[in-house]
């Protein structure tokens, strides 16, 4: 249907899998009880759903203590694909949720649409920012500009509730700092209630250039940390600093997209460091979707209600819908096969054909990006897949050092690990590699299944992580049948350039005339 938010982002709204039926299970009210989450997952399995999408998660837990991991395992045993949010605790490392290898763990990145609001200073400098609220009547004339944090008032700089009491902001544009546990919109509420005319919201240093389009309650723009520093410098350079905000509306075609959101939780995984997480990233910044309430400051209150919000709770459903399409296209594929297809075909370049960047405008690492940004068309025809059955996780779980009882809780059956040949994490037939490498070489095998043409050949292409030699045998995969399986061995060997205590990353590609099947490699040099 036609969709817009207050006149912005006009267009036709459609889901990832528009012909899919939705079954919605409510597990949260004031809180999200683990018993409710497990009950909903079990009910969904009994109902025979095809895909489970979970836009929720907590901190890292051993899998036997993680209700989502336990419920998700019950789902994949029944052929149900499970997609989960990576979490919104980035850009700090080791902040992931939903780390189990039978779950698709989804990070968040931008799309090529922005809703732009420019901060223009009295000295003529302009800084691009974003805001969903785009008033038509805001004056282009300069207004007095104030930073309430001058003089060391850190509370006022954050513009929290009551923080501007005693600060003369009436009729002025107020520069506020992001953070302090105060929502971005709440800061604008304080400015508005204190008589301010508008707000410039600057990032914390950690958020860098990652900005968001929010439904602010007053004219506002959200700018980068670098822009904020220059605005502060200008304020301190003159007795009467001034500014205005120029609202430019919807702009499409940002060549830096997708760019990793600063909030997207980062790996490496704490629960299982030998599994590279997150798995993938998808659209999760300033996403338009249906909304059950009218927006407070909407200039068109009679419209059907949509909103634009951000989070890995937005990116996760994108991947869930794509998984539904893949399951419909390939009904015989396992959840692991669908995950493999998504991961090994992902994009690692942005629309400008440069490496996907993070919030610092540096190339994003795999602990933010995972295998890359989802490419649904390529995922539908991956050529090769790394497959796993539910029982293949037992040697892995026993190898984590869990007790029989703990593994049994996860896999919903009685397990005796003494009767199972344990494997290291790196030996799980996963589409990526996460290795902790000391002075000795380590070798692992992978099994690939041909889901392309019966007769096909793949050659090896290696991008070695710095300081590591990657040796693969065989270096050519020759297939003569569909669903034929071939095992290859990968050896990771430190060389003279290895720097202890560092993470290094690379790629292992299998290349045919039609396809490139990519496995990310992350190595910690212990």
Structure description:
This protein is of the alpha/beta class and 526 residues long. It has helices at residues 34-47, 67-77, 154-157, 184-193, 225-235, 312-329, 335-344, 366-369, 376-379, 393-399, 404-411, and strands spanning 2-5, 8-12, 51-54, 81-85, 104-109, 113-121, 126-130, 143-146, 173-177, 198-202, 220-223, 242-252, 280-283, 287-290, 306-309, 384-385, 433-437, 442-450, 456-463, 468-473, 476-479, 485-494, 503-511, 516-525. The strands form six sheets. Strands 7-6-12-8-9-10-11 form a seven-stranded mixed β-sheet, with helices on both faces. A five-stranded mixed β-sheet has the order 17-24-23-19-21, with no helix packed on it. A hairpin with a 4-residue loop joins strand 6 (113-121) and strand 7. The longest helix is centred in the middle third of the chain and has 18 residues, at 312-329. The mean pLDDT is 95.
Map the helices and strands.
Elements: E1 2-5, E2 8-12, H1 34-47, E3 51-54, H2 67-77, E4 81-85, E5 104-109, E6 113-121, E7 126-130, E8 143-146, H3 154-157, E9 173-177, H4 184-193, E10 198-202, E11 220-223, H5 225-235, E12 242-252, E13 280-283, E14 287-290, E15 306-309, H6 312-329, H7 335-344, H8 366-369, H9 376-379, E16 384-385, H10 393-399, H11 404-411, E17 433-437, E18 442-450, E19 456-463, E20 468-473, E21 476-479, E22 485-494, E23 503-511, E24 516-525
Parallel strand pairs: 3-4, 4-5, 5-13, 8-9, 9-10, 10-11, 17-24
Antiparallel strand pairs: 1-2, 6-7, 6-12, 8-12, 14-15, 16-18, 18-22, 19-21, 19-23, 20-22, 23-24
Helix pairs in contact: 1-2
